[in-house]
Fold:
Amino acid sequence: MTPPRLSLVDQHCHSVLRDDPTADSFAAHLTESDAPPAPGTSHLDTQLGFAVRRWCPPLLGLEPHCPPGHYLDRRRELGADEVNRRLLGSTGITDYLLDTGLDGGLLDLPGFAAACGGAVHEIVRLERLAEHAADTAGSAEALADGLAGAVREAARTAVGFKSIAAYRHGLDLDPAAPSRAEVRAAAGRWLDGRPPGGRLTDPVLLRHLLWSAAETGLPLQLHTGFGDPDLRLHRCDPLLLTDFIRAVRPTGCSVVLLHGYPYLRSAGYLAHAYPHVYADIGLSLSYTGARAGAVLAEALELTPFGKLLFSTDAHGLPELFVVGTELFRRGLTGLLAEWTAEGAWSAADAERVAAMAGGGNARRLYGLDG
Amino acid sequence: MTPPRLSLVDQHCHSVLRDDPTADSFAAHLTESDAPPAPGTSHLDTQLGFAVRRWCPPLLGLEPHCPPGHYLDRRRELGADEVNRRLLGSTGITDYLLDTGLDGGLLDLPGFAAACGGAVHEIVRLERLAEHAADTAGSAEALADGLAGAVREAARTAVGFKSIAAYRHGLDLDPAAPSRAEVRAAAGRWLDGRPPGGRLTDPVLLRHLLWSAAETGLPLQLHTGFGDPDLRLHRCDPLLLTDFIRAVRPTGCSVVLLHGYPYLRSAGYLAHAYPHVYADIGLSLSYTGARAGAVLAEALELTPFGKLLFSTDAHGLPELFVVGTELFRRGLTGLLAEWTAEGAWSAADAERVAAMAGGGNARRLYGLDG
Amino acid sequence: MTPPRLSLVDQHCHSVLRDDPTADSFAAHLTESDAPPAPGTSHLDTQLGFAVRRWCPPLLGLEPHCPPGHYLDRRRELGADEVNRRLLGSTGITDYLLDTGLDGGLLDLPGFAAACGGAVHEIVRLERLAEHAADTAGSAEALADGLAGAVREAARTAVGFKSIAAYRHGLDLDPAAPSRAEVRAAAGRWLDGRPPGGRLTDPVLLRHLLWSAAETGLPLQLHTGFGDPDLRLHRCDPLLLTDFIRAVRPTGCSVVLLHGYPYLRSAGYLAHAYPHVYADIGLSLSYTGARAGAVLAEALELTPFGKLLFSTDAHGLPELFVVGTELFRRGLTGLLAEWTAEGAWSAADAERVAAMAGGGNARRLYGLDG
Structure:
């Protein structure tokens, strides 16, 4: 089998930096840590760091694995605009589902669309939406009563929602929708003494947002698995969502389990057992680099092939789009070549599954061809 | 090393359908989901579906990976009896340990024995036994006092027991045997308002059954790990049985951890640490198809080689016996060939371990040669 | 890439037996089980048993995989001193960090140093230190008030501390340092009726020891993951330490997560997310034998390469030093050869990472070159 040149849908990503990153900021975008590296270590001495050093230098005219300093020099020489254009242009991604819930010197949605040259669709982050609403709410009651409407309003232009309840509380939430009285009381507690921009961590309001999103019928992306030190990983096992998944099933909403590492097999089980559950394979590949094929293979155990979704979860650096797509393509191609060579799969099925995971499933789920 | 033609003991399986399945029923037997496939997806687009399409068509005179429709046409043309005979006859299984606790158009035990041509031994499902007892019990007291006796009676002809407490409650049960008073009270609560055929979910009675079975000294099979949406997977981690395993040790009963995916390494640890614990590798291979060798390899990390047990957990379709045996044989042969080629194992040890896992361990544990 | 002859630092090990082991004692040192093998099975029919039979016979002039009886005969013929010398001398370990908290016919620290010919550094086991203090304490108050001082005193000569709180309670401990009053009350409860040599299991005192060690600034090794049946494996997931890791961060202490199997990916995540966390890869390789490369590969997913630490966790038998080093060297070499061959890593980086994991990281962390 020759490596297919898949047309990819990146079903979960973020925008890139407008300006040149400093060396420290570049390294900080390649780790989930919130701190400088330990003495004597480097944030680039990781699978992700090595993957960036493999794939990106040639796109800027350098040798793979050249010293990081050379790469950063060349990057600055070309400038952020040119680097964004070259790297984003290399990936073969045709559609980007952009989570617009992060700040920090990023290109806005039109700016990103111009840089990447693809179709860009918005994913609305629920906690951010609530925090904006809280910033301008006249009263707790108005906030409480207005949240569901704000979610419905966002659904008019977004293709899906995202929740980071995993970060803000953990996935061990009460699965039921809270009552109107509970939501009002929680809104009161939250607004009382909240500083401007204060984060939403209240579990009642987090649940209210999840249920409000579910009732729009749009796909609901949930962070699961690893991330930065804001979360407790064992409280991000997607299996903790089982009762929520059951409860939300009658709404007709689809649940997309993002990332999931190291609980990819659990996410695959949920996608297998429940018709409305889908499993993402994004961040887990970028961060595991040379091991991406082995990690992807675990996701391909129980996940029905019509339920697997590609993404990069890239954020800030266009390098993360490059690495995410290269690792996905090579990992998938390697597995399919092995399985067809030994006769376990037919070549026709392998090609079909590659097209589904790379973009077909996402196009159908988010209605991108609609 | 040439692939050994192992004589296999299938230490956990179910009977097959008497009649031709419809296309929908065929697909439904190839998933743990309880629902039609999601829009645009198919229950056959899975590792298990592809494994069936690889191994079974040639046994009916078709090409591997032929379209599912051709296969089902050919299957109907031959008829269920002939298909059962051909597929079951291809496996090399000499002994079947049949869990008789499922209904739904299946061949009865003598009918299955005639179809498979092997020796068939009964595994009695504890919850089913209790539900039958409840259907005819004169009083709660009579039910409570009679359960242990019914279990002892079943032990006269069965070779082992099985519990699906994982489904009915989760494995996070109180490890201790309940008192007689607790059992009587629980039986009263259960019978009170129970519809005919009503399921047993009461944790006190589930524990009473487990302890009654343990006291017979027969091996006790426990469902662990994945299954259909009736269970919560994170409450089926075999490690949740640790305190029960310790408590039951003095009875002399052996505990067999069934399935276990994705917690195979945890099951291997328990089999390693406790002399009376055994680990099954069945369902996990069928459902992971092209990945079966990789999954089996994890079970071969800590599980002592005298503690690993082959099974298919086939149910309804004879195809599942074919796939379960082919994947086990190829997966095991592949690993042993790799390890002997690099000198890590001797060829003699590899052959010995293959014979143990394929049937020798089960023969010894269940006394099949007695 | 040719296999590098790494100069290794064994960052966690125990001493070896002074005298020849019996056949039963030899086998008992190759399992985490506390019992004779199940009927019809052998403690040598495991990955660890096969690894010992592969690597050790040639060092005593026998064929690899010779029958265990021949090996034990030859071992007795040579005698414990000669066997210890030959096997320890074969490993290429230059520095041993010895946990001196175990008894049972082991060479003392000078005796071990003479046998191995390398530099030996002491790791003090906190629970043992407290049990010694309890044996001689005049009063509960004196014990409570003296523990932190005893830890500080030990820090004058030790290079690090070790805790087996995972065994004695589980890692699901309250993360905060207990108050002085709590420590005094706990010491009173413990001493009240304690038999001489009685084990410390009180969670307040376990936490007090952890915090006392952290405040010395020396690295703190914590048992995580599998071990003998004294522990409950699901209560040894390193992720249960997350809140302790956060709480202890300001002390400047480094936390070393030992063993970790099967939670190696979780340990890797913690080492990735927190600057003061390191991940050990020792016992997990010895016990998984032919699978050691696959297990090591999982540790190499998220663990930053400057945070991975080699060890053997050998105890009693010099064979365990041989197996631990051979499996680490071959596993690492195999992975690096694969990754450099496919271009994912540069050869220079691979060499650098091998040197870091084999010893450089430990030298820096424990100040061995100081």
Summary: Chain B touches chain A through 37 residues (CB under 8 Å). The radius of gyration of chain B is 21 Å. The domain at 8-125+155-184+214-366 of chain B is CATH 3.20.20.140 (TIM Barrel).
